[in-house]
Amino acid sequence: MSHKNNLGTKYIHAGAHPDPSTGAIMTPIYQTSTYVQSAPGVHKGYEYARSQNPTRFALEEAFAVIENGKFGLAFASGVAATDAVMRLLVPGDEVIAAHDMYGGTFRLFSKVYEKMNIKFHYVDTSNAENVAGAITPKTKLIWVETPTNPLMNITDIAAVAAIGKKHNCIVCVDNTFASPYLQNPLDDGATIVMHSATKYLGGHSDVIQGCLVMNDQDLRDQLYFIQKSTGAVPGPQDCFLVLRGIKTLHVRMQRHCENGEKVAAYLRQHPKVEKVYWCGFPDHPNHDIAKKQMRGFGGMMSFTLKDDSIAAATKVLSSTKIFSLAESLGGVESLINHPASMTHASIPREQRIANGLADGLIRLSVGIEDAEDIIADLAQAIG
Q1: What is each CA distance from 31 to 52, 213, 234, 237, 344, in whole angstroms?
Q2: How many domains does the chain divide into?
Q3: Mean pLDDT of 170-189
Q4: Taking a C-beta distance cutoff of 8 angstroms, is the pair 343, 363 a contact?
Q5: Of the residues 247, 278, 306, which one is the last residue of a structural domain?
Q6: CA angle 149-150-152, nearest 5°?
Q7: H or E element: which one contains 161?
Q8: Residue 3: what pLDDT?
Q9: What is the pLDDT of residue 298?
Q10: DSSP 8-state code for residue 52
Q11: What distance in Å separates the CA atoms of residue 246 and residue 67, rounded to the nearest whole number?
Q12: How confident is the model at residue 5 (pLDDT cuts 50, 70, 90)?
């Protein structure tokens, strides 16, 4: 299992520079829309806050640092960050994407970009040969989610990145489920890393935001132009919140991982549970890949009951006291979710079922509460 030491030190100091005017240790919230120029075109590097904001710039530096990249860009949401990548394409281009991924990404691809004559090939990316087999001369982007949402499938980033490099394709990895604490796709050859910073990076369920991180200057310039021109930028207050969240990412992720392991083990031995999807199990189909490219296995998991009826799942979903029934993930509090009716409702049922996402599947975002309380809550809800 790969290790990068001193992550806590890195996260606490990422993007942090004392304010030059006051010495403030925390980056100020520059709540301004514009900047005064001393003469036409003479300014201090800041003209208009859609294009430049010091709070956002500090956060973008932090994004780059924590993902071992050179450039970071912040967006108003994870979907806005995904959209910026899609705007690199032109009609006629083709995309290879995971058949099992976040419903909002599928909705963006299928409802917005398909009608712009972008063609999508959805494959099981947990086998890199499927990606190689879907490549055509028109393929320009390979979109990877690992672990996937919600079935926790694992894709070999290095193998897919090698395919992308061979065919001159951008490889973008949605790293939201793992977070930079567990996985750094750029180190494995990815072109771009995307996060819904709403989740683990913010960590407190109080902000909507997305980010992209890359190493290539020309690609950064193209994406910055898109960011500036389309305007899906986060405000300085939101940037401040994510900057603060990053400072505790390491301690939160340690607890998410510890609790996740205990909850997964508990669910797996429960007599009413049929299957638990968690990439930390040694018999997970791609566990060896997960172990190679991740530092731990996180607090995200899904499970099905032996009684696979919607009624049985609904009873569990509606009976928890510590787990809150809500969309999203990655906050300090535990969340329980029904993908079929919530996060993945935009995917047609036939397609969901074919990809293994059962109507009764329950997804957990295991928080950082005391593990025994989390498990006791599941015990009383499952019965």
Answers
A1: 12, 25, 12, 8, 36
A2: 2
A3: 98
A4: yes
A5: 247
A6: 85
A7: helix 157-166
A8: 42
A9: 97
A10: -
A11: 12
A12: low
Write out the two tokens for 55: 């709070």
Instruction: Tell me the residue range of the domain where 313 lies.
Output: 249-382
Give the torsion sign (CA, 250, 2, 213, 333): negative
Distance CA 377, CA 263 (A): 11
List the end-to-end C-alpha distance of the chain, in Å, as a whole number: 36
In a domain, 184, yes or no: yes
Of 25, 9, 28, nearest in space to 17 by CA: 25
Largest interatomic CA distance in the chain: 74
Residue 1: per-residue pLDDT: 39
Distance CA 153, CA 150 (A): 8
Residue 352 in tokens = 């969901």
The 10 Å Cβ neighbour count of residue 152 is: 27
Q: Do residues 256 and 132 both lie within one domain?
A: no
**121 in helix, strand or coil?**
strand
DSSP-based three-state secondary structure for 259: helix
**How many angstroms separate the CA atoms of 309 and 33, rounded?**
52
Distance (Å, whole) CA 9 – CA 16: 12
What pLDDT shows up at residue 167?
Answer: 98
How confident is the model over 228-286, as pLDDT tens digits?
999 999 999 999 999 999 999 999 999 999 999 999 999 999 999 999 999 999 999 99
Q: Token pair 């295991």 is at which residue?
A: 366
Instruction: Out of 192, 224, 247, pick the residue that ends a domain.
Output: 247
The answer to whether the CB of 324 falls within 8 A of the CB of 333 is yes
Residue-averaged pLDDT of the chain: 95
Q: 178 and 44 in one domain?
A: yes
What's the pLDDT band for 358 if we cut at 50, 70, 90?
confident
Question: Partners of 325 in the beta sheet?
Answer: 336
Catalytic residues: 50, 102, 174, 199
From edge to edge, which strands make up the β-sheet containing 324-325?
273-277, 300-305, 362-365, 335-337, 324-325
